[in-house]
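[Solved] Which block belongs to which protein?

Original post:
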Amino acid sequence: MPLQVLIADDEPLARERLRLLLAADPELVIAGECRNGREVVAALKERSCDVLFLDIQMPGGGGFEIIEQVGMARMPVTVFVTAHNHYALKAFDVRALDYLTKPVEPERLKAALGRVKERIASQTALHAQEHLKSLLAALAERPRAKEFPQRLVIPNGTRDSFVNVDEIDWIEAADYYACLHVGAKTFMLRETIKQFAETLDPRKFVRIHRSAIVNISQVREILRAGRNEGWVLLASGRRLKMSKGGWGALLSATRGPSA
C-alpha cells in the first residue's frame, strides 16, 4: 500500500517541484497540498497521512507552531523543507526525521525517502509486535475451557478395553466402583460415582440420583412419582430412579444456559 504524503509550503513553485520529484516514486501518493499552517492543522485533523514535507516558515503558523498545536505524538513522519539551514538543530529537537534545503535536489530527496521508509517500516513492525503481545496477554488471562475425556480405558486383567464416553448410556454406583452401561455391555472401573460426576461433561451427563449418572442423549421420558422423586426412562427401556435434585439438574442441563 503506497505511503500517503502531504506537502505543506506557501510557495506554489516549491510545492510543484516537490510534487514532481515525489511522483517518480511508485511507493508514494500525494494525499494533499497545503499553503499555510492553518490548512496543515486542518488536514492532519481530517485524515491521517504517513509523511509530511513541511516548510518551516509559512503564514498562519510555521512548522514549529504546527507541531506544537498538533502534538509530536500525533504527527506523521516529518521532513522539514526550508530555504534556511539555521533551523536544523531545532528541527531535530521536535523529532523531525530529516531537513531539506531549497531547492530540493533529487539525490538528497531520495536519501530522505529511504530514511522515511525505514522509519515507517520500523514503526509498523513495532505496532504489530505490540498488538501480538496484547493478544497473547489477553489469551493468557482468558480462563481455559475445561477439557473432558473422550475415551476411557477400562483395565480387565491382562487386557484393557477402550470405551467412547458418548456411547455410555448410564453409570451405576457400586461402592468404590462404578459400573458403566454401554449398550448390552457393562464395564467396572475403580472410581466413585462422585469422581465420575466431576470428570464428565455436565452438558452431556447428569447425576440424577446418588447412585446413577445418565447420558442426557439417552433420556426419552421423565416420570414424576410424587414431589420428591421420580424415574427416568432411557432409550434402552431401562428405568432409573431420580431424586428431586436430579430432576432439577436434568431439566437445567437440557434447557442449556439462559440467554
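(Second protein starts here: sequence line, then its C-alpha cells.)
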Amino acid sequence: MESQAARAALRASAPVASIRAADFDALFVPGGHGAMCDLPQNPELGRLIADFAAQEKVIAAICHGPAALIGAHLPDGTPLVRGRTLTAFTNEEERATELEHLLPFLLETRLRALGARFVTRPAWSEHIEQDGRLITGQNPQSSRLIAEAVAAALRE
C-alpha cells in the first residue's frame, strides 16, 4: 500500500520547469547515488537553482545532492559554485563505497574543477559548510546539522 501511495505522489509531482523560486523560501536537494546521473543533466534544475541564488534564497544540498549545483550558472555563465565554499560526498567516501566505477564522475573532483572551495572532514564525519545562503552537507551523517542550519537561515 505504501509503495502505491508513493508512486501516486511521484506521478503527481510538479515538473521542475513549472516551479518558480519566487514561490519558495528555500530549496533542499537530497543526495543518493542517483543524483549523480539525474541532477547535473537537468537544465531546468540548473535554472531554478540560479533563480534561487539571484533572489538570495536558501539553497541546501547534502551528500550527492550538490551534483545539482553543477548545472547552475550566474547570468554571465560563471558556474554558481566558483569561489564558493562547500562540501559534498567526498572522493574518499565514494571510494569506500566501491561504487565510484558506476558513476559518471566523482563529485568532489567535479566541484573543485568548477572552482568551488571544497572542504572535507574525515570520512563519515558530521560536516556542513555554509557560504552565505548556500548550505551543503558532506554525507548522510550531516543530516541533523544541515537541517538545523537551514532552519536558522530561514529565521534570519
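Accepted answer:
You had them paired correctly. Confirming on the second one: The chain has a mean pLDDT of 95.
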